[in-house]
Amino acid sequence: MARMKDRHIYLVTGIMVSFLLVLLFSFNAFPNLYLYLRIFQEAFSLIRQQYIEPVSENKILEGAMEGVMEVLDENSYILDGSDSRKENPLMFEDIGILLSRGKEGWQVVSTLVNSPAYRAGVRTGDLLVRIEEQGISAIYATPLVNKLSGPSFSRVRLTFERKGEIQKYTLRREVFRPKIFRERRENIGYVRITEYQDHIIRELQEILWQFRNEGIKGLILDLRNNPGNMYSPAGKMAAQVVAYFLPSGKLVSYIRGKNLEKDEQRFFTRGEPIFLNLPLVILVNQGTAGISEIIAGALKDYQRATVVGMRTYGNASIAHYFNLSDGRILHLTVAQYYAPKGECIDGKGILPDREVIVSPELELKIMKGEKVPDSQREEAFRILQSQLKKVASSANVANR
Amino acid sequence: MHIRKRWTLIFLVGLICLIVLPAGCFFHRNNPPLETNPQLNSFLEILSLIENHYVEPVDPQELIYQAIRNMTRKLDPYSYFLDPESQKEVEIEITGSFWGVGMEIGMRDKQITVISPLEETPAWRAGIRAGDRLIRIDGISTAGMDVMEAVKRIRGPEGSSVMITIERDGKVLDFVLLRERIKIINVRDKVLHSKIGYIRINSFLDQHTSRDLDKALEKFYQQGINRLILDLRNNSGGRLDEAINVASRFLERGTVVTIQGRSSADVETKKAKPEGRVYPYPLVVLVNNGSASASEIVASAIQENRRGILLGITTFGKGVVQQVFPFADGSSLWLVVARYFTPGGRSIHQQGIRPDVEVEDFALSPGRKKVLENLYQGGYLGKFIREHPRYSLEDIIDLRQELLKKGIDLTVEELRRLIALETVDREDDFATDVQLLKAVEILEDEDNYQKILEQSGE
Q1: Considering only CB atoms, which chain A residues are within 8 Å of B70?
Q2: ipTM
Q3: Burial of B111 (0-12, 13-18, 19+ CB in 10 A)
Q4: The whole model's pTM is what?
């Protein structure tokens, strides 16, 4: 009897001690944040009480927030509560720019082809420094959003900075412009999409079918200066386009967030492809982002297409809105897109299989509509022709 | 007895759990206690959201350090946040010593170079010389390193050794040096000709500054020195108490500085507190735009109490008191907590102090340096002095013409100063020290000195 009691007692003690240990162990998971929060509170308090002059709490808190946001990626920023929850608040279609919060300020991710900004020569990497001659806040996107939005056909004066040089433009907002082009050169088809919208995708499908009926032997899909950041989820739309070229059921992309199991999501091709084996080249440049990058990444990883041009931007992520106590909203990146082979697209971009560099001067000429040779497109054409020659010669061999 | 002991044990364990559990929950919460400022709440919420939702893990230390840094950016340039590493570096400067090999290094032509070995240090004893290019430290190439990084690698724990590889005139030499305690010499003294004492104070950070000054002054006294030059150029300041001590060595009475804190009632007047011997000699204080803070306190105290004259160019203009608040992790917050005012009630901050005699630094633009090199290489000054034990202005004009023919273009004034210097001790860079020369000139002429002193402040 006494021995049984012993066992019980030791069992109970054992459970309690292990419970205690678990508790102690879990303390160690968070002391870091707690320690630093304490330091912050102390610093905040000291500044309020000890600094030589009384200083506005909100002013220094603004500084604190700026500091924190500086550590995060370029798609995390703060908005006012009054903003509508657009998929991407920094996409300004009527002017033609997609912005992000870069290290040095608001910067252009991509300029939409043939948009007012494009024709003026605004480029990836340009810093937006003034709107209507007024400066812009570093972390709050709302003033930026408010000032950049406006009625169709209205004008806005923008000041950009590039490598220390200032450029001023007056741009007239417009939405209606062709967003998809097709051309044919001999037996090679060419299609350029500049923005993604449902009807554009339908048109793309029609064009591809047309090309198929015409019996083209090769295709160039031009995604340069297409930031593709308008639809959620971007993966789904990318999969739609990739599905025209790959068999059904292929992994096009997946996203990953903080919590691996909860936040992972995968996108697959569905339906019959239009061109399963047709030699294919994708044209990309530094203004290629979002959906366009995901498309390029998938087709490259499956070696279904040759990617030609310049490294893409590296802006393929998902952000969520979070309400804050003071009425503002935190736009925070919560997940990033990955290519099928496992490379993260966001922050890195897609490297072309064949690099063809266009100098900024030449790019400016192209944007302004001058008739200059398009070296990237020419290279794409050459690649397809040589691929076709190989097919033809091996066909000859087979025929003998 | 047995049973009671066991139950006592369980009871104790249970009690501990009961206390620890709610306490644990309290500390375990991510959310710190709510503040009344909604914006502060937002800030804390942002941190929490980042911790829980941001796409990749972020080091809370990085977030908080950036947050605090940016807060101080809203204040003023003298309020800032130092991470533990930077704070340690500052402390090394303050304590004035470290374990190293004893050479000053800098960047020349994109290469880490030895500026000078300090006397009686391992580097000096091993024969390392000024100008040696430091190409490897412990076998690691210095290409691409910045000076801070090189310094960190050279310094190390007591008694450890480091391998220094230098390149000199095409030869590569290796030295294995044992680290010693290196004391940064803060106060240097030298007797110039005609019984003028020269004292240079590098910084007021060292708590022994006034004590070292006392040693130098006493030495001068024993040697019969009766005129002084106090060099505070490029002395960026340091401890307030040391500044007051140093000023007190020269002022018998009077106000040294007034300190104004946050509230208007928060005013402190610091008066001179002389200790020991008083040195009432004619005094010239050298200042330039690198003289700041504590240096400016000493300079303005001497100027406004008419104890001596200031010579050089307008000082930096840093008239604020910083207080250091250390944090638990070794980082620190430096805040401006008060402002300085001169005895006459002027604010030093952003204005600086104007010297009684304004003399520009010798212009060391690349062009001028070459001219001086040619001058000294040709030995023209030495020859002139030998041939003209007493010289007149006409003699100097002739010299200028002679030198012009040889392609050396110096003004008469410049030559006059350079020649005067030739009769003074030529070590360090006194050769091109125009301000020092002028100070010597003034001290040699008592009437002139008195005249300037009387006119001071008008």
Answers
A1: 63-64, 66-67, 70
A2: 0.84
A3: middle
A4: 0.71
